[in-house]
Write a structure and sequence with these properties.
Distance between the termini: 47 Å
Largest sheet: 5 strands, mixed
CATH class of the largest domain: Mainly Beta
CATH architecture of the largest domain: Sandwich
CATH topology of the largest domain: Protocatechuate 3,4-Dioxygenase, subunit A
CATH superfamily of the largest domain: Aromatic compound dioxygenase
Helix content: 10-25%
Strand content: 15-25%
Number of strands: 12
Radius of gyration: 23 Å
Number of helices: 6
Order of helices and strands: HHHHHEEEEEHEEEEEEE
Bound molecules: benzoic acid, fe (iii) ion
């Protein structure tokens, strides 16, 4: 094209693809550049604004390392991570939700009934549930990887005061698909705000809070892996999660219980609970691999 114009630049770009371009890459790049060009035309993007955007991405690169990925966080607060999640979430099972950056590989295996709180103080919650297939049949031997913040709102990887695997554990469902454990009630917390994402949230009048949650990764042979979270129904940020992770089937009531109702056996804390606690039942329905 000898005379590139705002009207023909998109088609000109598309004509430059080589014949042996991978078809999926061709589809993605075609759509991406169509929307990108249309975005610039529609907003009449100025040089200054374009530079600010690139500066934000450069800053994201600067603060990204093995421990922190600001690009993922940017995708999270723009709703892109959750949208991709929902597009690929199976209708057969429990909704998926964002993984977030704080999962740790190889969490310590724990027996059902174990307690995650260690020395940390907070309201005890007793979490139980059943892993099931879409027809309601129990799935035995599913692994249930759990992680959460400490009562100070920090994950172990953010907090030098915590052990590496603090509030991380791997459970296995029993022959009836059940799992159970105790922990302290997680708290609402903010996503990291000391980088470009924080600046963007601030500039657009948004807060950085997530409603409190427990993270789950559930795996069983023959089923799709489920990455999800469970939220209490009384959290003030439930309707305004900054990373758009809340789905109605993931919101559970944390039922208050008196201390003397704590099970006398079957839990690491049996016989040791002297304060009222809450109970949450969260069943996990796994979609079949073939669906
Ligand atoms: C999290 O829930 O751990 C999380 C998710 C997205 C961004 C930051 C944190
Ligand atoms: Fe989280």
């Amino acid at each position: 094209m000898r005379n590139v114009t705002p009207d023909n630049i998109t088609d000109t770009f598309l004509s430059y693809f080589g014949d042996d371009t991978d078809p999926r890459l061709l589809e993605i790049m075609t759509s991406l550049v169509r929307h990108l060009h249309q975005f610039a035309r529609e907003t009449e993007l100025t040089h200054d604004e374009w530079n600010k955007g690139l500066e934000l991405l450069r800053w994201a690169g600067d603060v990204t390392d093995d421990e922190r990925n600001e690009f993922v966080l940017l995708s999270d607060v723009l709703g892109l991570s959750s949208l991709i999640d929902m597009i690929h979430s199976s209708e057969q099972g429990t909704s998926s939700s964002v993984l977030g950056p704080f999962h740790i590989s190889n969490p310590p295996a724990k027996d059902n009934g174990a307690d995650l709180s260690g020395e940390h103080k907070g309201e005890t919650i007793l979490v139980t549930g059943q892993v099931k297939d879409p027809d309601g049949h129990p799935i035995a031997d599913a692994t249930i990887d759990i992680w959460q913040t400490a009562p100070n709102g920090l994950y172990s990887s953010q907090d030098p005061e915590q052990d590496t695997y603090s509030f991380h554990a791997l459970f296995t469902s029993d022959e009836n698909g059940h799992y159970r454990f105790t922990t302290v009630r997680p708290v609402s917390y903010t996503v990291p705000t000391d980088g470009p994402v924080g600046t963007l949230l601030d500039a657009t009048g948004r807060h950085p809070w997530r409603p409190s949650h427990l993270h789950y990764i559930v795996k069983a042979e023959g089923y799709k892996t489920l990455v999800t979270e469970v939220f209490p129904d009384d959290d003030p940020y439930l309707d305004e999660d900054t990373v758009f992770g809340v789905r109605s089937d993931l919101v559970m009531s944390y039922q208050p219980q008196s201390a003397d109702s704590f099970p006398a056996e079957g839990y690491e804390l049996s016989g040791k609970v002297s304060s009222d606690y809450s109970r949450v039942d969260f069943d996990l329905i796994l979609a079949r691999d073939s669906d």
